[in-house]
Design goal:
By secondary structure, the chain is an alpha+beta fold. The chain has three domains: 141 residues, Winged helix-like DNA-binding domain superfamily/Winged helix DNA-binding domain (Arc Repressor Mutant, subunit A); 107 residues, Winged helix-like DNA-binding domain superfamily/Winged helix DNA-binding domain (Arc Repressor Mutant, subunit A); 36 residues, no CATH class. Helix content is 34%, strand content 26%. Strand 6 and strand 7 form a beta hairpin. Helix 8 crosses helix 9. The chain is globular.
């Protein structure tokens, strides 16, 4: 199951919401089941079992089932604020909605079935542009919900190797509210643990620094890259500061840093350029790890 891919609209990656670790795991298992070759409707039920969560996280089956039940109940109440339309179009005003509209318990099977909210469907299917993709295995072993969110926000800019974010924007997307209002607490309780987990469990290496506006720390600067390429390839420099709520932009003539001529030469019949680039990247990773 860890080899499956997660697809999310960039607008969903940068939406404002707060989810616990297990709530995120449940959602990601559901999202990984969305078929990209079939239309998604809000009537489709997706099942998550305690066995899946146990295998994914490495916890015992009983513990996984307890977390599954408790987290799915909370998930029914969780809200998300969407600031953009699914493929990056601007909207007149933010939309407040819910992740799921139905939770069905399947006690005999040790599982829970979820139905996505109507407003969420376009952000998970029929994504033709402005979307983020990564393997479920990239975040499977993380034990910090903040690490999972930060990883998504970085991998969205994977081909640039750098992202600059406003601290106020980051606080809003993570729904920190009044918690960690002191920058030292934010770094110690959120940023440092999240970066440590990304470095330990994901395919990326990450470094970070801070940037001041006047005397106030206003931005965080993240530089990152593929671990297999860390020694031989440095992140490309961006001109100026990236927009806080920017889009993931491929460098001209490449995807994930892979030249288009290589992608076109190695693409399989019926495979899109983006899918081919991701497959080539995964193949290179596997070779480097061998």
């Amino acid at each position: 199951m860890e080899n499956v891919l997660i697809y999310k609209a960039n607008a969903l990656v940068e939406a404002s919401y707060r989810l616990s670790l297990y709530e995120q795991r449940i959602l990601l298992v559901c999202i990984s089941q969305v078929r990209r070759d079939q239309p998604l409707t809000d009537q489709k039920l997706y099942t998550v079992s305690a066995k899946q969560l146990s295998d994914l996280s490495g916890v015992g089956l009983k513990t996984a089932y307890r977390h599954l039940k408790e987290a799915s109940e909370r998930l029914f109440e969780r809200r998300v604020t969407l600031h953009e339309a699914p493929n990056g179009q601007s909207v007149s005003k933010p939309r407040l909605t819910r992740w799921v509209q139905t939770v069905e318990y399947q006690k005999s099977e040790g599982a829970v079935a979820l139905r996505f909210g109507t407003d969420m469907v376009p952000y998970l299917s029929q994504l033709t542009e402005q979307f983020t993709r990564y393997a479920l295995a990239d975040v499977a072993k993380m034990t910090s919900g903040h690490a999972m969110r930060l990883y998504e926000q970085l991998v969205q800019w994977r081909d640039t190797g750098k992202r600059v974010v406003e601290i106020d924007w980051l606080r809003e997307t993570l729904q920190l509210e009044e918690r960690y209002s002191n920058i030292r607490d934010l770094k110690r309780r959120v940023i440092e643990p999240a970066v440590a987990q990304i470095n330990e469990h994901s395919p990326l290496w990450v470094k970070w620094d801070q940037r001041k506006t006047g005397r106030r720390v206003s931005h965080l600067v993240f530089t990152f890259g593929e671990k297999a390429q860390k020694a031989s390839q440095k992140p490309r420099k961006q001109k100026g500061i990236a927009k806080t709520v920017g889009k993931a932009e491929n460098a001209s003539g490449s995807i994930y840093g892979i030249p288009m001529e290589v992608i076109n030469a190695q693409a399989r019949p019926g495979e899109s350029s983006d899918d081919a680039a991701h497959r080539i990247l995964e193949e290179r990773r596997n070779i480097a790890r061998a």
